[in-house]
């Protein structure tokens, strides 16, 4: 069997050590996983995507609908961005790119980028749970469950793989990450009863990222980490397909 993977991802799925890469770059972890399985990966991803974006893509993108009859495994390479500090409510932050006139947009964006690290550190010290995140854990789990149920309504019994949020050392976020533990607990609590195996991204890339071996932005990975995640994903998928 040459399995076809449908991968919902954030920028960690298509960003390498220097830049964002085309989705067919063979060193990206979804493609590493697919190659190890003798199959292919269909990557549906975007910068800053959370589990809510995956749900939106599934329900609004007709290209995704064309993939569903043909894929053999659903992989959630998503959830990490959900955990990042978000001093400004996500809905408002996502409106910055559409502000007009252009000069206003540049000033607002520049001001937010200057304020975000300071606010993230201050909230991490003073607010319960470290302050607001891009998507609260209960909503991350809700959208993962919704997406899983919707795909399985079309493809009953399709194997599903999800992931535990990775770590970062990005200066643009403080660098603090107080929302990560709660998100991991919520995802593990959902995945166990749902029978969804997890890729532990913290274990797989933590030393790589925190040791400064990835992208200089402190968020994205080098090729070594992509290879490790891809191999781990292939191992999990291989076991699921054998069991099925």
Automatic annotation (TrEMBL):
Top-level division of the source organism's lineage: Bacteria
Ranges for domain SGNH hydrolase-type esterase: 7-224
Any one Pfam family here would be Lipase_GDSL_2
Q: GO molecular-function annotation terms? A: hydrolase activity
Supply the alphabetized keyword list. Hydrolase
Asked if the keyword Isomerase belongs to this entry, the reply reads no
- What protein name is recorded for this chain? SGNH/GDSL hydrolase family protein
């Amino acid at each position: 069997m040459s399995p076809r993977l449908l991968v919902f991802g954030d920028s960690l799925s298509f960003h390498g050590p220097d830049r964002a890469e085309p989705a067919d770059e063979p060193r990206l972890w979804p493609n590493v996983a697919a190659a190890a399985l003798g199959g292919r990966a269909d990557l549906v991803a975007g910068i800053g995507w959370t589990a809510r974006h995956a749900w939106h893509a599934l329900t609004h993108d007709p290209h995704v609908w064309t993939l569903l009859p043909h894929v053999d495994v659903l992989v959630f390479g998503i959830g990490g961005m959900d955990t990042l500090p978000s001093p400004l409510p996500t809905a408002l932050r996502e409106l910055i790119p559409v502000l007009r006139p252009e000069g206003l947009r540049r000033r607002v964006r520049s001001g937010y980028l200057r304020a975000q690290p300071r606010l993230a550190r201050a909230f991490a010290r003073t607010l319960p749970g470290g302050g607001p995140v891009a998507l609260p854990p209960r909503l991350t789990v809700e959208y993962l469950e919704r997406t899983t149920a919707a795909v399985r309504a079309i493809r009953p019994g399709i194997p599903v793989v999800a992931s535990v949020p990775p770590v970062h050392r990005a200066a643009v976020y403080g660098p603090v990450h107080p929302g990560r533990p709660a998100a991991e607990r919520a995802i593990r609590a959902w995945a166990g009863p749902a029978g969804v195996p997890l890729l532990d991204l913290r274990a797989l890339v933590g030393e790589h990222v925190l040791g400064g071996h990835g992208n200089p932005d402190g968020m994205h990975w080098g090729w070594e980490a992509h290879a490790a995640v891809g191999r781990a994903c292939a191992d999990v998928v291989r076991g699921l397909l054998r069991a099925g």
